[in-house]
Amino acid sequence: MKENPKDTQLRKDMVEGRLVKDGFLGEDDRSLLDIVAADLAVLEARGVTQQQLGQAMRALMEKGLTGMGMEVDAGKWLVKTEEYMGRMGCPFKDGHRAAKRNTTLADKASGQTITFSDLNIHLIEKHGFFQGEGSPYRLEPEVLAELVMKTEG
After folding, report:
1. Tell me, what's the pLDDT at 30?
2. How far apart are CA 153 and CA 1, in angstroms?
3. Distance of alpha carbon 38 from alpha carbon 33, whole angstroms
4. Over the stretch 49-105, which tens digit does the pLDDT of each residue have?
5. How are beta strands 113-117 and 77-89 bridged, if at all?
6. pLDDT by residue (tens digit) across 19-29?
7. Which of 8, 47, 63, 152 would you call most buried, defined as having the most Cβ atoms within 10 angstroms of its Cβ?
8. Measured torsion, CA atoms of residues 92, 97, 100, 105, in degrees rounded to the nearest 10
9. Listed residue (100, 131, 98, 102) closest to 114, CA to CA
């Protein structure tokens, strides 16, 4: 599919060093539309929406906030949310500014960990964007879909 000129500029802004040091795309050369479509197809195949995923991530982040930087028991997860000064703007230029916060989940059964930021929550929930392949902050949709199922189930 041919990329809209607005998306072409957006993609240029998401490369390494433009808006953030590491960028949002890694070495992924697909169009933003193709990246989003592929990741949303993974969620759809697992019966999870981007909104459900965002809500689950936000709920766990908020649970972590109650620990003031310490680990909190959240059922199947141990959650730790750490806050940093400042905010980060959404690269989609929608006016959203996310708090600089990282939440780390540790699955009590497997020990597997997942770390995400408030900006990740927004990018997934509002834009269906998990970041490009090879991006250091990419979150895999199949892993996060499991997160929702573990949290709700």
Report:
1. 93
2. 38
3. 9
4. 999 999 999 999 999 999 999 999 999 999 999 999 999 999 999 999 999 999 999
5. unpaired
6. 566 789 999 99
7. 63
8. -70
9. 102
Name the pTM for this structure. Answer: 0.90
Under a CB-based contact definition with an 8 Å cutoff, are residues 49 and 141 in contact?
Answer: no
SS3 label, residue 18: coil
Contacts of 74 (CB under 8 A, 6+ apart): 60, 63, 64, 105
- Tokens matching residue 4: 């809209």
Measured from the Cβ of residue 6, the count of other Cβ atoms closer than 10 Å reads 9
Residue 140 neighbours by CB under 8 Å, 6+ apart: 130
- Of all residues in the chain, the percent with pLDDT exceeding 90 is 77
Q: Looking up tokens 């750490």, which residue turns up?
A: 82
In this predicted structure, the answer to whether residue 18 has a pLDDT above a threshold of 90 is: no
Alpha-helical runs (H) found in the chain = 5-13, 32-45, 50-65, 118-127, 141-152
Sign of the CA dihedral with 5 first, then 97, 57, and 78 last:
positive
Our CA angle for 147, 71, 126, nearest 5°, is 40
DSSP assignment, residue 79? E
